[in-house]
Write a structure and sequence with these properties.
It is a single chain. By secondary structure, the chain is mainly alpha-helical. The chain has five helices and two strands, in the order βαβαααα. It has one domain: Four Helix Bundle (Hemerythrin (Met), subunit A) (Up-down Bundle). Helices cover about 65% and strands about 5% of the residues. A two-stranded antiparallel ribbon has the order 1-2. Helix 3 runs antiparallel to helix 4.
Length: about 160
């Protein structure tokens, strides 16, 4: 099966970084689920903890597949901007204006990717998850928020 980069939009909000993984989104079996598609991300445990039905897994897979092109393009823009910034840092480390310019371009690309991810996440929340699953997901979000706050507190106290 063709390997592609899959942006795990729904669960990417659980981590501060751009979470990528190799996955078989083009699986020949249309009923393939996110759980059986391979490792989604380091946060794939959420799929299990939400107790998704097979139907929900297929729906999420469909949403991800229908947004694959847009998300892949947004991720490619981030990677290109990141590479341009890295090249500028290596080639012209003293040209801070150029580094700022490339840094702004990278942040803009990340913003667009984030917006696209949030749209897909909202679609999954509204169309697939039950109210109980939505509540459970929000608990994960609050836990993440707590971890971020602890990291900020640790940084401030060090």
């Amino acid at each position: 099966m063709k390997q592609i980069i899959l942006i795990a939009v729904f669960i990417s909000t659980l981590g501060p970084d751009l979470t990528l993984a190799q996955s078989n989104i083009d699986a020949p079996d249309a009923s393939a689920s996110p759980l059986s598609a391979g490792p989604l991300t380091r946060h794939s445990w959420i799929w299990t903890n939400l107790n998704l039905t097979e139907t929900q897994q297929r729906q999420i897979h469909g949403i991800m597949a229908s947004n694959k092109s847009k998300l892949k393009s947004a991720m490619m823009n981030v990677l290109k901007a990141q590479k341009a910034l890295q090249d500028a840092i290596i080639q012209s480390p003293s040209d801070v204006n150029q580094i700022r310019q490339y840094s702004r371009a990278l942040e803009s690309a990340k913003t667009e990717l984030t917006v696209d991810r949030v749209k897909v996440r909202a679609e999954i929340m509204a169309q697939v998850l039950t109210p109980e699953q939505q509540q459970r997901f929000m608990q994960f979000e609050r836990q993440r928020e707590g971890r971020l706050q602890r990291q900020m507190d640790e940084l401030q106290s060090s």
